[in-house]
Each structure stands twice: as structure tokens, then as C-alpha cells.
Amino acid sequence: MEPVNLTDRMRDSFQFPTIGESLITFNLSQTFRLWALTILLGAGPSLAADQPLPPDEAFRFNATLKGKDTVVATIVVAKNHYLYKDKTRFALKNANGVQIKDVLMPIGEMKNDPFVGMVEVYKVPISVTIRLERSPKAKGLTLHATYQGCNEKLGICYPPTSKTMDFAFPDR
Length: 172
What we know:
Layout: H1 6-12, E1 13-17, E2 23-27, H2 30-49, H3 55-58, E3 59-66, E4 70-77, E5 81-84, E6 89-93, E7 98-104, E8 109-113, E9 117-122, E10 126-134, E11 140-147, E12 149-151, E13 156-157, E14 161-168
Antiparallel strand pairs: 1-2, 3-4, 4-10, 5-9, 5-12, 6-11, 7-10, 8-9, 11-14, 12-13
């Protein structure tokens, strides 16, 4: 079968090669031809936009040690996504002589979630302050964060995500 020059074929008809090298010919209206050309030339990026982001892109996590007894965790929520406040938790591991004193989370917005009903969520980046109590001999800790969210546009939720970060305390 010879290669088909799409420009020539688009003038009067659009031909689709099929199995056995026969052609099926459709007479197309001007509108449909424009639509078909748009799909053929520009569908790649628009179709990719409807694919779910990987969890690490949908919810970007980071944490830093601020001073001697505070960790600040940030989660950047991607556009068209939301993060469940009640599914966002923090715990310590490898933290001899250190415990969480309190966790200060910002106020979210209420959403009528199709999966769980009315729930508080974040649609914007959040900063969480985790205040610590620690003994003078404590050397460091591992922060363990767990969170879960959804892609609002696609109507899908991600499984819970866990991240860990190690911190060494500065000498007192």
C-alpha cells in the first residue's frame, strides 16, 4: 500500500486504511474535517492532561527542622486535587527522647466528597507545624507522614501515601 498524503485526502474525503489494505472512504463535512485534523495534530497534550498525576506530583511533600524543637511540613496540592485533612497524620520513628507535643494544621474548606460525604480538605499548599518535646540527649528523629487525597477533575482518589524524612538535632 502506498503512503497516503493526508493533505490531499482531506480536501474531499478522509480515508482510513483497514486490514487487508482496503480503504473505507467517508465524505466529511467542513466541520468534521477541521475536528479530525485538530484531533490528529493536537490530541497528544490534551489527552495526557486527563491522565492522573503520579502521587508524588499530585501531593509534593517536604519538611524542615526549624530551631531545636519544631518541624515544619509542607504539602503542595496540585491543581484539580484535594487533600483530606483527617487523613493527614504525622508520627516519629527512631526518636529516642523525642515525642510530638502538638500538630498545628491550618483550617481547610468543607467539601461534599462523593466518597465520604462532608469532609475538610485542602486544595492549596499547606504548612503544618509539628512541635516537639525532646530530652537534651536526643540526637535526631525520623518524621513519618501519611496523607491521602483525590483528583477532583477525574473523580479518582489516590491510596494513602507515606513519606519519611530524617533529621539530626543541632548540638545544644
